[in-house]
Specification:
The protein is of the alpha/beta class. The protein has 11 helices and 13 strands. Helix 1 crosses helix 3 and helix 1 packs across helix 4. The two termini are about 45 Å apart. Keywords: DNA-binding, Transcription, Transcription regulation.
């Protein structure tokens, strides 16, 4: 077989990482990919090179003679790529969208990454919704963001990569004088007959409205119709006081004067959060952002689902396909 004209650096990195670990599960964890995806990349590289790189058995992984011979060349190629990217401006700031001010999960990941990478600038942006931010990622105007990956169109997801970060319990925000405001928790059944606002008509947050529609379906809860977007805290409170509609949120939603937030229960609906970036993008600070997200998820149990929880099947597939997720 003739030598390939081009070898994807991702395949080389898969090969080198497995060669260093001699263990596919550990190598997959280092690369933040599913083990099956890593195995596919290694086999694809073997096909392209026309040789076996590893001897695999149920108990161990070892390099073949060809693997031993090619390893130093693959390592050198990756070092050269890293040097090239650094020379081409990889020291530029990493632009990270936090969606909205006050969302603690996103802020904690960014702050941890800043601590881990003091030599890199990570700049916060606030694009308010993954649907909008995804377009900015693909256009190169953003580098990373957070949100519900399964809520994006398949054609958009094809140009992006993601790493599950957290299952956020959902809540409703109500005016303090709402008849349901006295409940310490909000059973979903208690919202039957209510009209709940979840961003319908806001093109920036279509993934959130879709999640709400799935949650409300069959429960007698009406999705509030599209309305002009209220911009600013004062305008938001004015509209809420006029409509008196509960607002779908997450438990960590920043508090507003004159309102109360009540966690949803029976079941506990979850908002799945992924770290999302443009496919193929490399930046030293992105690696630290991903490590920080994985560390915090493990430390805080962010990817552990409550027993009495609700999550659409499409979201479970996206979140569960990652080795860091636990159910």
């Amino acid at each position: 077989m003739p030598a390939p004209a081009h070898v994807d650096p991702r395949l080389l990195r898969a090969f080198v990482t497995v060669a260093e670990e001699l263990h596919f599960t550990r190598a997959a964890a280092r690369l933040y990919v599913a083990q099956q995806a890593l195995s596919r990349d290694v086999r694809r590289l073997e096909r392209e090179l026309g040789c076996e790189l590893f001897v695999r058995s149920t108990r161990r992984v070892t390099l073949t003679a060809d693997g031993e011979r090619l390893l130093p060349y693959a390592s050198a190629a990756l070092r050269a790529q890293d040097d090239l990217l650094a020379a081409a401006g990889q020291s530029r700031p990493l632009l990270v969208d936090l969606n909205s001010p006050g969302l603690e999960t996103h802020r904690e990941v960014l702050h941890r990454a800043r601590e881990r990478a003091p030599g890199h600038e990570l700049m916060a942006r606030y694009e308010s919704g993954l649907t909008w931010a995804a377009g900015e990622l693909l256009a190169g105007r953003l580098d990373a963001t957070f949100g519900r990956f399964a809520g994006l169109a398949p054609a958009v997801r094809a140009g992006l990569d993601q790493q599950p970060v957290r299952y956020e319990p959902m809540a409703v925000v109500l005016p303090v004088n709402h008849p349901l405001a006295g409940l310490p928790e909000m059973p979903l059944a208690a919202l039957a007959g209510e009209t709940v606002y979840a961003g319908a008509g806001n093109a920036r947050t279509e993934e959130w409205t879709d999640l709400a529609r799935r949650l409300f379906d069959g429960r007698g809860i009406t999705l509030a119709p599209p309305a002009p977007l209220a911009v600013g805290e004062e305008e938001f409170q004015r509209v809420m006081a006029r409509t008196r509609n509960p607002i779908l949120a997450v438990v960590g939603f920043p508090p507003l004067p004159g309102t109360v937030s009540r966690p949803l229960v029976e079941p506990v609906p979850l908002s799945p959060v992924s770290l999302v970036w443009r496919k193929g993008m490399t930046h030293p600070a992105l690696a630290e952002l991903r490590r920080s997200a994985a560390e915090l998820a493990a430390e805080r149990g962010w990817l552990e689902r409550p027993v009495d929880s609700w999550l659409p099947g499409s979201d479970a597939d996206v979140m569960g396909a990652h080795p860091m997720s636990r159910c």
